[in-house]
Description:
The complex is a heterodimer.
Chain A: H1 9-20, H2 30-58, H3 69-81, H4 84-116, H5 118-132, H6 139-147, H7 151-175, H8 180-187, H9 192-229, H10 239-248, H11 252-284
Helix pairs in contact in A: 3-11, 4-5, 4-7, 4-9, 5-7, 6-7, 7-9, 8-9, 9-10, 9-11, 10-11
Chain B: H1 2-13, E1 17-26, E2 33-43, E3 48-52, H2 59-67, E4 74-79, E5 85-87, H3 99-110, H4 114-127, H5 143-157, E6 169-173, H6 181-197, E7 201-206, H7 209-215, E8 218-222, E9 229-234, H8 240-256
Parallel strand pairs in B: 3-7, 3-8, 5-6, 6-7
Antiparallel strand pairs in B: 1-2, 1-4, 8-9
Amino acid sequence: MPSPEVQDLSKVEAGLDALDTPTTTQTEPRRRRVLRAALPPVIALVVVVAIWQALWAAAFWPEFQLPAPLAVWSKFEDLVGTGKIWEVLWTSIHRAALGFLAAVVIATPLGLLVAKVRHVRAAIGPLLSGLQSLPSVAWVPAAILWFGLNDGSIYFVVLAGSIPSIANGLVAGIDQIPPILPRVGKTLGAGKLAAARFILLPAALPGYIAGLKQGWAFSWRSLMAAELIAQSPDLGFGLGAYLNEGSNYNDMAEVLTAIFLILIVGIGIDLLLFRPIERAVLRARGLTGALT
Amino acid sequence: MTATLSTSEHVQSGIAVELSAVGKVFGRGQQAVAALDGVDLTVAPGEFVCLLGASGCGKSTLLNLVAGLDAPTAGEIVLNTSRPAVMFQEAALMPWLTAARNIDLPLRLAGFGKADRQTKVAELLDLVRLSGAGTKRPHELSGGMRQRVALARSLAATQRVQGADEPAMLLMDEPFAALDAITRDVLQGELLRVYERTNTAVLFVTHDVREAVRLGQRVVLLSSRPGRVVQEWSTKDETNESLTEEITARLREVISTHAKS
């Protein structure tokens, strides 16, 4: 039944569209945004260093327990000056990256299986969650006995640390998909494989990325634990070994330098790699609540 | 060959969907709940039928059965259409895809070529008057616009690479119930306009008598728990106002029988 009002419907509709469309806030200029994001942590860092300097100046603790900030800085300069830093960083980072990539390749199908096959979930779901709370250092002795003092042991520990996180992230991501989306997919004609490719995986992406982020953090800290405990000339000289060297020489400045470097690499990869990906994915879905 | 033959047969029979003695029981034994009981209903190709009923009348269950999302426990459903497309109360657009890509998804799943898909998406966007919003994401659209994208997507889902002569079928489950009154009014007009420009049959579920009378060529009233067909009206013979009053009175009567006194 066409009614006369249908004629100007298009105008009414255009008006409604204009009125109802959610307004998007004007984004700040990039320079100001970076500044606003960077300023608070920089101030916090300055305060911490100032307190540290004050404590050192008050000489509460002996020098071998609390060196001056400048002593740590000159240690760092030595490391850069001799070029040793590149060897140390490369040894550790390429191991962590390779271990992490292998973990992604193993954990992704594992997570899909746990999420979508009921019996698999019942059988190993709780184990997977439990493994997340097992400190990966606990695997080091076993790994050394199984694989000997070589890269195999290190990679085993890294995998044991990061696979549960990545798989669990994917499972959580799939569990949180609104049930209407797979139903819609079915009515649009998606079979099992097409549904996984076009609906399940993209819908689970935010959870999966959260899992990847945590998986990276776990693989990095597992690697440090492994490098710190497993000592051998075959293993190369990574950050963990550098930390251990500082400990052996009672060189607190070196120990602190190592700790700072471990922190910087961990935070840096998160900030430079995972944050931008996460940001882009969440922004595309209008999930901007956590992003400012 | 057989497909062509059967299609021409159905065109003669003039039936898009036929439900005979369809029943649906949820659960088993003591806890069994009969949602639908002995429902007979036919929809002709290109016909607009509104299913009306109070809550618990199994309207949505019936739609799910026709959509193939669920199987009936009794009776038979014969579809002479391509796979029916469904529109829900929420737009349920894929939040990671733009409006255009959402409409593109069923075409992609159906195996259309890229160039073909592009023209079809542009046509459908134009049909729901959203040509300028193709690159927007669902969260950047208003509720009414989202439902129009969902409508375009359902229409896309009725298209087939081959067998274009199969009549299309659109199932709508209270698609405008969550919208504000002004938008709902406009979208009802839009749906009628789109319906007149396509040859699709529509089975439209609602609890709003006025909406059912305005949209449908036929209004079918269902009783509640279990859902049965109580009565049906054609909207051709009477004025909308008197028919709305008549149907409302009958609906109230049906609901009153459920009062516990």
